[in-house]
């Protein structure tokens, strides 16, 4: 992904946000249920999960746009709701971000500059050029992709200590999305902050993510360093009988049977002796993509909930 080959340096891991036992209900519907996790300073997080899992609700609570029904949220030492000392350190770019129709692009940028203390005007100008956004065009005349690009410009140029992107690239083509990823990583290395990316394009952003939080059914089902998460999963492929022998006694998260052949996603670190056994059985062991892990985590969560019911 272009710039994603850059090394992300360790810049300190102080906690900047804590979520403890948070639940959010809308009538009889539980959007979030007993959610707890921490966000550290200077880290890129992936907030992953299927549509309707509760990701957007959680981001709204973190940024003070909604109150939890139960539980506590602490961001930069305080509750975010109606707290200007906290909110000045946040930037939240929503899916399908709305702006007043009569504003022009340059007016939106000027408003952001006035509201965001860490704003970088020069960087914003470069980003407008990168995404070919005409600063005199009215927002209501922007295409869906251009509107998404404007939100990306705001989020990146804000350099807010906590920046959250909720599916920010609707309508963007692959080239524009990868431009976003490259600009995000390059600027993050130069100006570290905490970034939360909520997305369904998991494999596209996988190389960016240092930590993964997976939400399913309003609950956190995975909260782990991404490298550690990948190291604990492997796909075994080959003859069905050989796969059966290899996975015996192991936790199988997912399996596909294709006639005489099978593929099984297995949870657990793979040792050298495991690899030797796989080789003896004629199996291929391959790493699991972050998207596959996310899907498997959600399916495993559903299965456990079904057993509990």
Question: How do the helices and strands line up, and which of them pair or pack?
Answer:
Layout: E1 15-26, E2 29-40, E3 44-48, H1 55-62, E4 70-75, H2 84-87, E5 90-93, H3 105-115, H4 121-130, H5 144-158, E6 162-166, H6 174-190, E7 194-198, H7 202-205, E8 211-216, E9 219-225, H8 226-231, E10 233-239, H9 240-247, E11 251-258, E12 261-267, H10 272-280, E13 284-286, H11 290-308
Parallel strand pairs: 3-7, 3-8, 5-6, 6-7
Antiparallel strand pairs: 1-2, 1-4, 8-9, 10-12, 10-13, 11-12
Please state how the strands of the largest beta sheet are arranged side by side. Answer: 5-6-7-3-8-9
Estimated share of beta-strand residues? 25-35%
CATH topology value of the largest domain: Rossmann fold
What general form does the structure show?
globular
Average of per-residue pLDDT values: 89
What's the helical proportion of residues?
Answer: 25-40%
Radius of gyration: 21 Å
CATH homology superfamily name of the largest domain: P-loop containing nucleotide triphosphate hydrolases
Query: What is the CA–CA distance across the termini?
Result: 43 Å
The secondary-structure class comes to alpha/beta
Any idea of the CATH class of the largest domain? Alpha Beta
List SSEs in N-to-C order: EEEHEHEHHHEHEHEEHEHEEHEH
Assembly level: single chain
Query: pLDDT under 50 segments (min length 5)?
Result: 1-12
Q: How many domains comprise the coordinates?
A: 2
**How many DSSP H or I helices?**
11
């Amino acid at each position: 992904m272009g710039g994603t080959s850059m090394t992300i340096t360790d810049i300190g891991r102080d906690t900047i946000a804590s979520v403890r036992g948070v639940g959010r209900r809308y009538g009889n519907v539980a959007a979030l249920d007993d959610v707890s996790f921490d966000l550290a300073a200077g880290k890129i997080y992936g907030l992953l999960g299927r549509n309707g899992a509760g990701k957007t609700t959680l981001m709204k609570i973190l940024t003070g746009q909604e109150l939890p029904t139960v539980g506590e949220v602490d961001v930069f030492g305080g509750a975010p709701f109606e707290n200007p000392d906290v909110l000045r350190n946040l930037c939240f770019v929503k899916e399908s971000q709305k702006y007043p129709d009569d504003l022009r692009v340059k007016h939106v940028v000027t408003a952001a500059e006035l509201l965001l203390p860490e704003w970088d005007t020069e960087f914003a100008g470069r980003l407008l050029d990168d995404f070919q956004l005409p600063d005199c065009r009215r927002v209501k005349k922007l295409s869906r992709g251009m509107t998404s690009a404007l939100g990306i410009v705001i989020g990146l140029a804000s350099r807010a200590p906590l920046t959250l992107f909720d599916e920010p690239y609707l309508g963007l083509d692959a080239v524009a999305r990868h431009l976003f990823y490259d600009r995000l990583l390059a600027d993050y290395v130069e100006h570290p902050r905490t970034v939360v990316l909520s997305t369904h394009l998991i494999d596209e952003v996988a190389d960016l993510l240092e930590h993964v939080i997976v939400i399913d059914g309003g609950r956190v089902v995975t909260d782990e360093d991404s490298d550690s998460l990948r190291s604990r999963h492997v796909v075994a492929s080959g003859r069905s009988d050989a796969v059966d022998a290899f996975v015996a006694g192991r936790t199988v998260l997912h399996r596909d049977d294709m006639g005489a052949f099978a593929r099984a996603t297995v949870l657990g670190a793979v040792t050298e002796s495991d690899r030797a056994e796989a080789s003896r059985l004629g199996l291929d062991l391959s790493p699991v993509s972050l998207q596959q892990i996310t899907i498997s985590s959600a399916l495993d969560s559903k299965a456990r909930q079904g057993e509990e019911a």
